[in-house]
Specification:
This protein has about 300 residues and is an alpha/beta fold. The protein has 14 helices and 8 strands. Helices cover about 50% and strands about 10% of the residues. Strand 4, helix 4 and strand 5 form a beta-alpha-beta unit. The longest helix has 29 residues.
Length: about 300
Amino acid sequence: MELGMVGLGRMGANMAERLVRGGHRVTGYDPGEAARESARAKGIVPAQTLAALVGALPSPKVVWLMVPAGKIVDDTLGQLRSLLGAGDVVIDGGNSYYKDSQRRAQSLAADGIAYVDCGTSGGVWGLQEGYSLMVGGDEAAVAALEPVLKTLAPGPEAGWGRVGPSGAGHFTKMVHNGIEYGMMQAYAEGFSLMQHKQELGLDLHQVAEIWREGSVVRSWLLDLTADALKRNPTMSGIAPYVEDSGEGRWTVAEAIDLNVSAPVITLSLLERLRSRDKDSMTDKLLSAMRNQFGGHAMKREDAGDR
């Protein structure tokens, strides 16, 4: 199958390379010249412009987007809309908000263009291991994409599927990432607890390796944790600052809208927000209140004991 890939960052380029290895022809576009040249070395045919990419594709045209969620997706679709026609397909493989995907699908359908939302998991390991693909959209459009989806997935019949209509793919990926937040938080707290029990002299990498085989908490995230602890047992040089890319917030908001209790996911998101507060007004005020009502000592920043 022949398709276009828009966005040749690390994940987009890896996906395109996996497709090329699987026998597909991929024309790629990225605004960055370095990204286009790097893609060429991986067997991807670079296009200098978005119009050139679309022009190089046979009809019906298939264009896969791997660009950041939000305005850039809408801007790219605005350009593509004038270049594509009835029967063509656009796949959004990024982490778009599912309601945006529903809106985009409805809008493009007016021109006969199918919009498929594909929640994509696998990160930088996807090139070798394959990607988990949660696909939403028109049944016929998704069926036509099967050769591509089967190549990107871990196996032809494993790790991918159409999960529902437009928006379902990105909704499922949103919840997937919310669960991921909670799992990561639980691992991090558990290993921190063991690190603080210094009298036992636990080797955290050893424990992670033991848990990887046969334990009920074994997972790919634990595999990655074990590798991280092997490389840097004390996490030296790493700032205690954790970003989020939005999916956890969307998951928590959806839980509230649906009256579904999701305390683990919610608290894991709040912990990420807390990690970024280097001058916590909350903690300062808590200390001041304890001093006011109970005369408890306060640590002073200018005392050198913070």
